[in-house]
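Q: Predict the bound structure with 6-O-phosphono-alpha-D-fructofuranose.
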Amino acid sequence: MSQHVSLTRFLIEEERADHINADLRLLIEVVARACKTISVAVGKGALGGILGDAGTGNIQGEAQKKLDVIANEVLLEANAWGGHLAACASEEMDDPYPIPDAFPRGNFLLLFDPLDGSSNIDVNVSIGTIFSVLKCPGDVQCVDTQAFLQPGSSQVAAGYCVYGPATTLILTVGHGTHQFTLDREQGSFVLTQRDMRIPEETQEFAINMSNKRHWEAPMQAYIDDLLIGKEGPRGKNFNMRWIASMVADVHRILTRGGVFIYPWDKKDPNKPGKLRLMYEANPMSFLVEQAGGASTNGRSRIMDIPPTELHQRVPVFLGSKKEVEAVTDYHRKADQA
Ligand code: P6P
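A: Predicted complex:
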């Protein structure tokens, strides 16, 4: 008898425990299957003829990679026929995508960054798909942007799939954060870690240091204190990692702890940060909190932020609880000064 628990069995058991219903189980299975397809495409590298730019841009003003567009289409097509979704929203699309009239619509909304970290595609560094699931609110047509504008605390599921040396799916349905690794021979995701836990303390931080001169004073002060190390106010030495692929940096933090920071910077004062609230910060915050970590925008809990726009951005401080509290404290004290 195999000791392995497949994703399918895990989801059946979550349904039996009333943590999810049948439609949400189908939705997660469909997204996981789409991630397997994306993993195959990403894994072809230069042999697939799909590296490089697509020659188009997205609402973020970013050049789209061919794989960005392919991953987006894979997720839309996979979710069209199942009857579990009312609409999708994507980093790669200006507006929500209602499920086509040819198919029945369900009561869930799916948001995703189909291929996060895509600037790393051409240099063969881990990238990934991030997704978030909301329920249709009762009071609006469930295909309008307004239906998606719910705080992160309303998510019923979230996850990412990191396409690295292994293809790994990290999932929460609000009862812990769990890791599934793709068994390429069987073609199925297998539970490889139940209830991931982020250590509360850490000596590792992740940030793009080249932006330091553009940060707010408390952000600079916090990093300066980390760099002083043991002799300084933090009383310990720190190490730094920055992969510039959120799924890879967050995966390291879920695996061994750390703090991931993408703060506001004055390079573009009108942008409150680089990362997007709805389909990057909120799903990652849900996963991190379910693993015992914390996630703020430097002042307050990210999952409490009431969204005003589908593609709005937010500063992100997430990871080991005590370290997120420490850096948030630097900002709150500066505000009170
Ligand atoms: P920078 C990738 O483009 C991304 O959206 C995240 O995955 C990553 O954490 C961040 O941007 C990297 O930003 O400014 O260091 O290139």
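A: The longest helix spans residues 22-43.
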